[in-house]
Amino acid sequence: MLDLSIQKVHDEARQGEAFAPAVPVDAPFKKFFYIESYGCAMNFSDSEVVASILQDSGFGATRDVEMADLVLLNTCSIREKAEQTVRKRLTEFKKAKRAKPGMLVGVLGCMAERLKAKLLEEEKLVDLVVGPDAYRTLPYLIEEAESGQKAVNVLLSRDETYADISPVRLDSNGISAFVSIMRGCNNMCSFCVVPFTRGRERSRDAESIIAECTDLFRQGYKEVTLLGQNVDSYYYQGNNDKSPITFAMLLEKVANISPDLRIRFSTSHPKDITDEVLYTMAKYDNICKYIHLPVQSGNSRILQLMNRTYTREWYMAKVDRIRQILPECGISADVIAGFCTETEAEHQDTLSIMEYSRYDMSYMFFYSERPGTLAAKRYTDDIPEETKKRRLQEIVNLQGILSHASNERDLGKTFKVLIEGDSRKSKADWMGRNSQNKVIVFPKQHYTLQKGDYITVKVTDCTRTTLVGEIIQDE
Ligand code: SAH
Ligand code: SF4
Ligand code: F3S
Predict the structure, then answer these.
(1) Any idea which ligand is nearest the CA of 367?
(2) What is the number of domains present in the chain?
């Protein structure tokens, strides 16, 4: 058995994580690759596709850079800081490469796509540059690089979904897995580099998604997160006369695999999430009552400049609708502080929409201009950095208060919790999540439970980030 547990190399927010799989102890491989992933869940999921392709061509996974014949960084371009982190990491690899001259270094993902062959000139030690739609060609590119040439493939595709590739799970908790359901993005949010790095939107064959989720459940997984930049615009029409499958229909199909398999999804664009999706969520207990609904800004003028295609009022009505159909639903958001020309009053609108929406959690950023985006071409990045940072801090402070208030509202409530493992602080406690994606820690007591079990827990206490509870019944 391969031990492919995640090791978090950097413990930053969602947009800057990295991991490498553990060393396979009894693996039959002669060559080894080491991979770190940065950016969104899509990138982490892609790394599992890459691991599968590499394993098929004779490379085993290692957690030890020095042991690796091939070092890969699956990179993110979303903000300048994400790219800086990768560049810093690349300079750190110089030493390893000097110690092992035949070692190849490759850059995958969004930065590879954005910078293309320029990356080879800028970062002299890079041997391979491979964009998100070109991973199938990795074995050939590696051969090319091994023969001393620089290898690049950054072609974007209109139909690549890696549907037939069975990902090698780099996450060893064995309970939750990411399943990619679509790639690319057809929205043109003016601040965003993703449409340029990931190409046109395309949906993956529904049958291959169901097959992958069914297989995961058989292997003991209890939770799948369906991934896409904009999952609500999932739309799959097979080759024959089959009727098209929408996201709501896909959710229902996955929910029907087993009541013991939990389903999550990310990300929903507020303009695309439909009542049909909300009613499907209401119908199935195993579709988690949690929606990540990025707002970006609470001001209609800024939203228009961002090309988000909704107004403040429209977003608020969507939140109302969610609360009406799914009263127990958790809602979180992404927020950007200091977009071009944002005034103090417009920033206040962001704070007030956060209060209105009562987010349980948010990912919060200050605006970072990305070359080539609509905003970079059309608007001046005119908010001074210290103002951006101050506004961001106000947003972060408010979210802290909202998260705490949200947790306090849960005191005394009971939740069905999926146990993910030991609590980080004590082996005497379990850690799990409720349907709303909140972390709950509770004493193991005398119950014989294991990770992957469901158990009912009553909330007795909380902090800003965690609920504390106790088991109230044996299930
Ligand atoms: N497809 C997802 C998220 C994509 S990127 C969606 O549409 O919600 C994740 C988040 O990064 C975005 O929601 C946005 O809040 C943030 N982001 C994207 N580009 C950014 C930029 N140029 N500067 C700061 N934050 C940015
Ligand atoms: Fe970027 Fe907007 Fe697409 Fe999300 S929906 S990936 S923010 S362009
Ligand atoms: Fe980053 Fe690319 Fe994801 S830019 S956020 S890794 S799609």
Answers:
(1) 1
(2) 3
CA–CA separation, 126 and 78 (whole Å): 21
From 359, 376, 408, the end of a domain falls on 408
pTM, two decimal places: 0.94
Residue nearest to atom 5 of ligand 2 (CA): 187
Smallest-distance ligand from the CA of 292: 1
Mapped onto helix, strand or coil, the DSSP state of residue 275 is helix
Measured CA angle at 257 (ends 252, 259), to 5 deg:
90
**CA–CA separation, 286 and 335 (whole Å):** 28
- Residue with the two structure tokens 């035949």: 102
Average pLDDT over residues 387-404: 98
Q: What is the DSSP string of 112-177?
A: HHHHTTHHHHHSTT--EEE-TT-GGGHHHHHHHHHTT--EEE----SS---TT-------TTSSEE
How many angstroms does the Cα of residue 40 sit away from the middle of ligand 3? 5
Residue 427 domain boundaries: 414-471
Which of 354, 376, 408 is the last residue before a domain boundary? Answer: 408
List of residues 6+ apart from 393 with CB closer than 8 A: none
- What are the pLDDT digits (tens) for 87-112? 999 999 988 888 888 999 999 999 99
Q: What is the pLDDT of residue 2?
A: 31
Q: Kindly give the distance from the C-alpha atom of residue 298 to the centroid of ligand 2, in angstroms, as a whole number.
A: 17
Peptide bond into 274 cis (omega under 30): no
Burial class (CB in 10 A: 0-12, 13-18, 19+), 121: exposed
